[in-house]
Amino acid sequence: QVQLVESGGGSVQPGDSLTLSCVGSGFRFVHYIMFWYRQVPGKGGEFVAEITSLDGSRYADSVNGRFVISRDIDRKTMFLQMNNLKPDDTAVYYCRANVDMQTYWGQGTQVTVSE
After folding, report:
1. pLDDT on residue 40
2. What span, in angstroms and rounded, lies between the C-alpha atoms of 112 and 115?
3. Residue 21 above 80 pLDDT?
4. Mean pLDDT rounded to a whole number for the chain
5. Burial of 45 (0-12, 13-18, 19+ CB in 10 A)
6. pLDDT on residue 54
7. Residues forming a β-bridge with 93
């Protein structure tokens, strides 16, 4: 059974940094592309970043240069290092994995950026 569990969210001020974690279980972590998405209430989900099985990465324009996606295969954990946070980064952040043609999501972790 595939499970994804995020953690690391919180309330920070503009310019601060925060690191999110997503622990995966029930699948061969190294073999699959994984993603971070975010959602603001009343809006659709927004792609944030992805990391491929070869550790290639891609970012949304809005976070490129500020966020870094990575993962630790041994710990089956994906990370999102978020630097120079802005109020527009406020959202619930979700990790996602596509495993054997099925999409799995974590429960989300709230990030709030305000003065």
Report:
1. 95
2. 10
3. yes
4. 95
5. middle
6. 86
7. 38, 109
The Cα–Cα gap between 64 and 77 comes to 21
Local confidence band at 31 (pLDDT 50, 70, 90 cut-offs): confident
Indicate whether 29 pLDDT > 80.
Answer: no
pLDDT of residue 50: 97
Sheet holding 77-82, edge to edge: 3-7, 18-25, 77-82, 67-72
Pairing of strands 91-99, 109-113: antiparallel
Q: How many C-beta atoms surround the C-beta of residue 94 within 10 A? A: 21
Write down the pLDDT at residue 30: 76
DSSP assignment of the chain equals --EEEEE--EEE-TT--EEEEEEEESS-GGGS-EEEEEE-TTS--EEEEEE-TT--EEE-TTTTTTEEEEEETTTTEEEEEE-S--GGG-EEEEEEEEETTEEEE---EEEEE--
Q: Give the C-alpha separation, 39 to 26, whole Å.
A: 25
Q: How far apart are CA 54 and CA 42, in angstroms?
A: 35
